[in-house]
Amino acid sequence: xxxxxxxxxxxxxxxxxxxxxxxxxxxxxxxxxxxxxxxxxxxxxxxxxxxxxxxxxxxxxxxxxxxxxxxxxxxxxxxxxxxxxxxxxxxxxxxxxxxxxxxxxxxxxxxxxxxxxxxxxxxxxxxxxxxxxxxxxxxxxxxxxxxxxxxxxxxxxxxxxxxxxxxxxxxxxxxxxxxxxxxxxxxxxxxxxxxxxxxxxxxxxxxxxxxxxxxxxxxxxxxxxxxxxxxxxxxxxxxxxxxxxxxxxxxxxxxxxxxxxxxxxxxxxxxxxx
Length: 274
Known about the structure:
By secondary structure, this protein is α+β, with helices and mostly antiparallel strands.
């Protein structure tokens, strides 16, 4: 009974963590470039169950009425002893493209990240909602400088009224007073970290942090100007999964209550001397 109590409780803890993951996905359903998380659960190593006294030669349970299994005790089966969260994996599926018409809005189609300078160092993001500060510096919505291919902040000339950002991050500016002659001024850092999906992990605030030893390389995706990548979280599917998790949690809670009732009866009634 104790084992059943722990197994049910571990299931409740697992579903609580899964619910927190889904809730975070729903909270970021409108976050540009957000990649949803998936809670991957695993079962504890199951136990083999055998009948009691099968190893006692005095009872000879395995030879009752001629029944035997080559002298070995028969197995009742396996017993699960609980579950836990093995990993919070990130789904890298492409998000939908939203057309904004803003020349400083850029989205990534395929693999790749932009680089920004933070207080903790260089971090990476797929959120391409950029703005130009009063000094001409290209920044994200949090005021963090966007970096160029050399790892330095990007500055857009103040007299540039037209900005073009190419598929590989090339930035060119033009001015109607100069017959709209475009001049290349910089290039966005546009990198990926190879096929290893765990080479770069989420940090929070829609930023990604590469693991130690991860080396950035040119990205294979393409940059689309005037667009933003939407979150890949599916609100409808997440709501359905949230309801399902709630039902599983309630089933685990009922199992805990049942186990507790059985323990109470075992203590107060089974062992009572009449």
